[in-house]
Specification:
With about 110 residues, the chain is α+β, with helices and mostly antiparallel strands. Helices cover about 25% and strands about 30% of the residues. The protein contains four helices and six strands, in the order H-E-E-E-H-H-E-E-E-H. A six-stranded mixed beta sheet has the order 1-2-3-6-5-4. Helix 1 crosses helix 3.
Length: about 110
């Protein structure tokens, strides 16, 4: 897969998607020099959105996603990205990402809290 060098091959070779009870997050993005992605499970399992598309977008590296970045598609604005530091409890383990995390928050959730 890594011989291909494409964003799909890199993402599938190094990145895993972990589904918890409340959140969905990636593991392994640090192998590509990127932050791991975390988001609500209900947002990740919405019929018209797929976390794999975010992984592909990040792996392509066309535009960096950083704190405050807005992710949109033809349907409109979907998420705002917020950077977070890595969890200290993972330091020294293969799951530790020194680049931190990128939390994707639904614009709907942001609107409801305002």
């Amino acid at each position: 897969m890594t011989e291909d060098g494409g964003s799909d091959a890199l993402g599938f070779a190094f990145v895993a998607i972990v589904r918890g009870q409340v959140d969905v997050w990636t593991m392994g993005m640090h192998a590509l020099g990127l932050r791991d992605v975390v988001m609500k499970r209900t947002d990740a399992e919405a019929g018209d959105f797929d976390i794999i598309e975010v992984i592909r977008y990040l792996c392509r590296g066309e535009k960096p996603i950083d704190d405050g970045h807005v992710l949109a598609d033809l349907g409109g604005i979907r998420f705002q990205a917020f950077t977070q530091p890595s969890t200290d409890r993972l330091v020294g383990s293969p799951m530790h990402n020194p680049f931190g995390r990128l939390k994707l928050v639904s614009i709907r959730d942001i609107a409801e809290t305002n």
